[in-house]
Amino acid sequence: MLELHCHTTFSDGMLTPTELVEAAIAAGVRALAITDHDTVSGWDEAMTAAPSDLEIVPGIELSTVHRDRSLHILGFYPDRDRLHAPLTERLEGRKRRAQEMLDKLAALGYPVELPKMGEGMAPGRPHIASAMVAAGYVDSTRDAFDRFLADDKPAFVQYEKFSAIDGIKLLLDCGAVPVWAHPFLYRGAPVKDVVPELAEAGLKGLEVFHPSHTLWQAERLKEMCAQYGLLMTGGSDFHGIKSENRDEYRSLNSLHVPLELLEPIKQAAAKN
Fold it and tell me: For 2-271, which CATH class?
């Protein structure tokens, strides 16, 4: 099976790339994409850890804004060298954003510090939420989001201006295949209105299969892929959340995305 949306400790995942590879093997995954937020630093470790029968798909998830709302763009098979300079600035922007949220929390009476993060690691709201749990301010990371960190909550800070159109262009310039991640989580406009805007900018695919999508939503996305000539992708958006049985991982490979969806993505990347 195919997993085209997974995170590691290099962004907001709970597992190292090596641990993610081990979990993917246990879950029956045949091809695994590493799609950390605004960083590609987890690729090398994953590729080193992967056996010959597990294909590692190099990827990324760019944090962008469209119509003043957060919109994420997955990119598959980007050229790392061409991404280096823009990603360095994106990482610095994530650090500035995280510090602004920490400053807001401190002003609200909830001072926290993030743990020291290694080079190439991208700080985000999940790290801040975990720090709030550790400090005893909230009962869970979900509580932290619901009360403080979610969009429009008192400690929320929007991404530094980096439009979805610019994100798509960046990925295309780096030889990647840009795909709109979890479209129905977007809150800026109806999906049917945004798809043609992004397709005109060069979007190549839609993440049809995602845990947040209903069957009806997945069917609508399939129809839009057919209408605009877009590729279909899918993944669990796995972050490493453990189930009550700590030897199992709740969502990895849960969607059973067919492996045959990968070849058209490879072909599209080869044309870039």
Answer: alpha beta
